[in-house]
């Protein structure tokens, strides 16, 4: 039975996102009826707080018991915006939903709360399905079976070492208790775009267990800030700082971790160059087929 005494905070960060209403509808469709909904917009061009507030009021079925909508006066970045949301979060459990993603189904939050209650976990991560931009074509389910095995069978110390080489704990599929955030701290604002990865590395060093839940929780729309096409100098700088601050001083294998960090940066830069070319080639082939 749903525990109505547990408040759940859903946090949506937004920046110039054309799909924000889809994300909002996904929250309004949830069967869980004790939700605090926080939206933080990072100074988008066409984001109107009053319009969004009225839309939620007009369409919600009663499951939103508190809503906070904030528009930053200037662009502050993902990490700062996430901490602004955290400062306003009152829920026992805190769940992230990006402004271009949607929950997998209407029971996602209800079942997430039950999983927290049954497992007594402080951090729970799960699966996401990646889709194309229109959420029509399924691309892949992550994490992979190998990564899931590592999540289930590694100690915090072991998982930290694994994550120094690859990150497969996604912010969009990871929920935390408020007590855990109060104990471990908020996101590190030295990083502009990447908030979840350094936080996960830190809490693993502190001995926190990250539980894996065998459920798909998010329909992930490709093309967001973490996608290769959106890769930029600031994102690269964040990656270098994470290695310097969160990995090199603590890992047992700094040279190996450095190699993987450099390899990832090179791959992202190459992907950014190649993916648009591949898309143009694909369109050209389709046109030839139709002739």
Automatic annotation (TrEMBL):
It holds the Pfam family Glycos_transf_2. It comes from the Bacteria. GO terms for molecular function: hexosyltransferase activity. Residues 10-167 form the Glycosyltransferase 2-like domain. Gene3D superfamilies: Spore Coat Polysaccharide Biosynthesis Protein SpsA, Chain A (3.90.550.10). This is Glycosyltransferase 2-like domain-containing protein. It comes from Hungatella hathewayi.
């Amino acid at each position: 039975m749903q525990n109505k005494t547990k408040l759940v905070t859903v946090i949506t960060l937004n920046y110039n996102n054309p799909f924000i209403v889809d994300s909002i509808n996904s929250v309004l469709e949830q069967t869980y009826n004790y939700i605090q909904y926080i939206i933080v917009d990072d100074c988008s061009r066409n984001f109107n707080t009053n319009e969004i507030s009225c839309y939620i009021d007009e369409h919600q079925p009663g499951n939103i018991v508190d809503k906070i909508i904030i528009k930053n006066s200037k662009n502050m970045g993902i990490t700062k915006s996430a901490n602004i949301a955290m400062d306003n979060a009152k829920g026992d459990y805190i769940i992230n939903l990006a402004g271009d993603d949607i929950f997998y189904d209407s029971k996602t939050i209800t079942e997430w709360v039950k999983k927290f209650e049954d497992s007594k976990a402080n951090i729970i991560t799960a699966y996401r399905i990646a889709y194309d931009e229109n959420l029509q074509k399924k691309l892949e389910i992550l994490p992979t079976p190998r990564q899931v095995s590592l999540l289930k069978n590694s100690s915090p110390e072991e998982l930290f070492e694994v994550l120094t080489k690859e990150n497969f704990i996604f912010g969009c599929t990871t929920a935390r208790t408020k007590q855990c955030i109060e104990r471990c701290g908020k996101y590190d604002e030295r990083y502009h775009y990447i908030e979840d990865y350094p936080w996960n590395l830190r809490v693993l060093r502190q001995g926190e267990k990250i539980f894996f839940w065998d459920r798909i929780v998010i329909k992930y729309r490709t093309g967001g800030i973490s996608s290769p096409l959106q890769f930029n100098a600031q994102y690269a700088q964040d990656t270098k700082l994470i290695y310097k601050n969160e990995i090199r001083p603590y890992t047992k294998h700094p040279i190996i971790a450095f190699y993987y960090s450099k390899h990832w940066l090179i791959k992202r830069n190459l992907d950014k160059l190649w993916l648009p070319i591949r898309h143009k080639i694909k369109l050209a082939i389709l046109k030839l087929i139709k002739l």
